[in-house]
Each structure stands twice: as C-alpha cells, then as structure tokens.
Amino acid sequence: MTAADSGPSVAGPSVAGPSVAGSTLAEPEVSEPEVVFALRGQLGEIALNRPRAINALTHGMVTLIRRQLDEWAAAPDVATVVLVGRGERGLCAGGDIVSLYNDATTGDGRASLAFWADEYALNAAIARFPKPYVALMDGIVLGGGIGLSAHGSHRIVTERSKLGLPETGIGFIPDVGATWLLSRAPGRLGTHLALTAGTVRAGDAIEVGLADSYVPSERLPDLLVALETTDADAAIALFSVTPPDSELAADRGWIDAAYAADTVPGILARLRADPSNEKALATASTIERKSPIAVAVSLESLDRAAALPDLESALEQEFRVSANALTSHDFAEGVRAQVIDKDRNPQWEPRSASEVSQAQIDAYFAAATWPEPVDGSEPPN
User: Considering only 107-121, 184-198, 287-301, 361-375, which range has the smallest mean pLDDT?
Assistant: First the structure.
C-alpha cells in the first residue's frame, strides 16, 4: 500500500505498445493518464500508469477499469485481457493509503467507503470475467494489487515478484478478497501470511494459491505479443517454466501446528514451544510487532471466510471489517507511524494480544453504516 500523489486520470483504448513492470519505460508526464487501455489483435491490455507510486490504485482507476472490463466482456473481437504495470518497480503497491488516512482523521469516511465498495465490486468482476484475464504480477504486488490480479484466471509471477498483504502492520485487515483466497490456501499458510504481513516470492505465491504460472521477466514482452493472436493457455505454456521451490511448503509442519490454535495468544505460545526453531521464534516476534487487534481480527476474518459460500460473501464481510477499521485507533496510528511520520513506532491499543477481547474482535464485524455527511449529500448507491 502506498500514497497516491495525484487525482484520477484515465484514457480509453489506444494503440500503445506493450508495457510490463521491469521494462525500461519513461516516467509519464503529468498529463499522461493513470490507466492506459490498448487493443492489439485479440488482446485487450490494462496498463497501470503511475510508476512513481508503484501504480498505487485510486478510485478513478477502479471506476475506469471496471467500465473497460464490462465493455471488453461483450466485445467479440477481444479474446483475452491482460493486466500490466508500467515502470521498473512493480505491478501495483496497493491503494491510496494516505487518502484513506486523511478521510479517517479529518474527513467523514464516506470517500473511503465509496472507494472500497467499488474496489471490491471490481475484484468480484475480475473473478467472474468470462474471458481469460491474465495478470502479470512482475515486481511488487501488495494489498489492492493482489485484488486486481489474484482473482484473475491466469496469474503469472516472475523472479522479480514480491507479493504481500501488509495490512496488520498498519492496523488494518486483509481485504480485496484476500480472506477468501488465503482461507483456502494449503494448511495454515494463508493465516501465516495474513498475520505476519509478510511478502512471498514466486514459488511461495504459487504454493499459497495467489499465482499459477512462472515466466521469467525477460520473456514477458514476447508473451504479450503471443497473446495478441494465440489462446491464453497455449501462449502461457510456451513461455512458462518450472517455478522455484516453495520455502513455505518446507515449513508446513511447524506452520500448520502453530496456527491451528484458536487464538493469537495460543498461536504465539505454539510458535515459541520449540526453542530450537529459529524461524518459528522469529515469526512470533514479527506478529507481536503488528497491531494486536488487527492480527486478532484478521485471524477471525479468515476463519469466518473459510465457511462462506463464495467470494462475494467474503467481500461483503471485508467491507464491514474495513468500515469499522477505518474509525479504529490502530489504523490511524499505524499509518501515522509507518507512512506519515515514519517513526516506525506505533503505539497500539490494546498493546498486546492477551489484552484483546472477543467483544473487541466482534465489533469489527458489525453492520457497516454510512457516516453522517459533512455536506448534507446522500450516500452513493
């Protein structure tokens, strides 16, 4: 997640050349759009075009991507859609966290709720898109970037990929459908990733279920060209290779045993049960540095998502949780410490996992209501 540095700007379909994270593309001028749509052959390309912000997602970008997807879904000349990120650093670093912080601390919260409503609807639309949706998850892919890519039908990682959900480190809870995805990961790997706010490389991303195929980044331009004329499955098969081994798969034993506990204090105790397991001990320390309430709510959110019937139900649950997190102490404090003041010393409330009550956890799942507007306007439909 990162801060946006300008308002939304978008463009319709163009004939611009291929663009992928890692390519040597110039920084866009101020007048350039934040999303560029291109149609080449049978391929429709969505290019996130905010490289200075690692293509951080704004509300305007969400709106235009959704509109273009709806158009391409019905277009007979579009066989495949591909999502790419401009610039060297990555596909997408997440949402506009500074705008959310400002809305939480000085606004009425309505802009944030409207953003999440549209963002989560886009996540669902990507998951049910009727044509191949290929996400090139090259470089950094965090938070909202996971929502744009990991619900696609064809999810490609490279040697440069770093996927993560950093929410508990800023007092927030995984969203954009991540609770649906992570609750269905092998064993307890999804819970481990959510609570630690860690990042994973290509092999682990595939193991956890956030990606499908591994393509070396140097081959992505050729893959894009192939997608212009070739079936998505066949094109990806031409360029994909065996992914690196998953480190998490090798750690499944202690991860599954520790995260089988019902509570965060129980998980921490199990992680520290074997003094010789340095990875487990380090994991416990990592979790304890995150927001205790956010970690506890994340655990509860994944547990509840595991029993839900579909992605849409998980997104509805996440909307309630996000709305309640917006007004929490720890979200404002986490963003202040990590993004605004950057002192890296958040003062969480409660201060430890043992102080978090079930009533505090349950409050995050209460029905979300639109705040009273400061300008008398009505909430969006």
Answer: 361-375
